[in-house]
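[stage:ingest] chain + small molecule (succinic acid)
[stage:ingest] validated
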Amino acid sequence: MPRVDYTTFDLHPMTMTLGAEIHGVDLGLEVAEDQFNEIRRAFTEFSVIFFRDQHLTPDQHIAFASRWGEINVNRFFKAIDSHPVIAEVRKEPDQETNIGGSWHTDHSYDQVPATGSILYARQVPEIGGDTQFASMYAAYDGLSDGLKRMLEPLRATHSSRHAFGRTAYRIQQYSDDVGDRLGNPDAATQDADHPVVIQHPLSGRKALYVNPGFTIRFSGWSDEESRPLLEYLYRQATKPEYTCRFHWQKNSLALWDNRATWHQALNDYPGQRRLMHRITIEGVPLE
Ligand code: SIN
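[stage:predict] done
[stage:export] tokens:
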């Protein structure tokens, strides 16, 4: 059973594997050290934590994010005009494409992938627009010992080229629909190799570290050789019992661990607007 012995707030686990809602914290205030330490423990134990009814200015959002480390400015997302370190995740009523609409983990294409992301809901659809999360600890733990042994020494290559580079914009309809929400395709040149099984820097637990959004192959294998095994791992990782789903309200905030989870934003709210502000936190090299 997940531990819920927190003293500075109430914590409600969402599933046995990941996700917890935290009640009784005001992130707009300077969070006291003992409370912050407990939030960090909850983040480590539950991989994604959620807060509701937070009334944050962009500066307060930045102040909370800065408690976790340096801010990593995403080079592809449009930033909000007043604060270049806050990325906008937006979909207008007349747009079809949502950002982050398939399973991925943020920034795995970077040499040093981001620790996590802090997503704050400024405007949400009346119905729909939830985000799903999947636990990469559960995905790893659920593999057979034989497959675990085979994966341990492997590395995989991650890339942003197909997602944010010039090729992504080849289809005119996609390019028109995305509009100014994404850009800078010439920055999508750097690929990264990471272990397929990482030891999580905070928990010490093993986690599967490949994802459908950005992993392109096992290092030293061809794409064709890699595909069947990657697809097996992707099916394994999204077993419903390894996932949780968050229903946003205006002023909800989520903080997820990019090393221990995947996420996807559901695109099920045609004709409605959804506006989120995201800040991503720098990470450490993965081993
Ligand atoms: C993202 O992939 O960072 C966006 C997730 C969301 O909008 O729910």
